[in-house]
Design brief:
By secondary structure, this protein is mainly β. The protein contains 1 helix and 6 strands, in the order βββαβββ.
Length: 139
């Protein structure tokens, strides 16, 4: 469950909000001149980004106001919450809204490399090569 920080009401549970799709989708300048295909692309085609993604959200059971959120679609980390009409913040400048996930390169929650666990084995070195299955287990 996400804890979303509404710009008007503060942090609230995800169940109070309604997802509104991709943010910053520009309305066509001359809608009367668009073909059916161009209208279909405007209405239905959206990015499906893996990683940082700008979204629109409505605080449907609270203040009923729309706002934008920059969220990582892989880790669900909320990187920024900002008002409608404001340009998308730079991902590097956007600080996480909440949570304690580490962004260090050796982090198992958000990084790509595993942490260094050398020298932390609880099995003595002499018996490390021998694997014993529990009673009743099969290979």
């Amino acid at each position: 469950m996400l804890l979303i920080s509404c710009p008007n009401c503060g942090s609230r549970d995800e169940t109070e909000f309604h997802y509104g799709g991709q943010a910053h989708v520009a309305y066509p300048e001359n809608p009367n001149e668009l073909s059916d295909r161009e209208w279909a692309e405007f209405l239905f085609y959206r990015d499906n980004t893996k990683g940082s993604f700008a979204e629109r959200w409505l605080h449907s059971t609270g203040c009923r106001q729309w706002f934008n959120m920059l969220r990582d679609t892989v880790t669900y980390e909320i990187q920024a919450v900002y008002p409608m009409g404001t340009p998308r913040p730079d991902r590097a400048a956007a600080a996480p809204e909440s949570g304690t996930a580490s962004t260090a390169p050796d982090s198992t929650t958000t990084g790509t490399a595993a942490p260094d666990i050398s020298g932390t084995s609880t099995i003595p070195a002499a018996s490390a090569a021998v694997t014993i299955a529990p009673e009743g287990a099969s290979k």
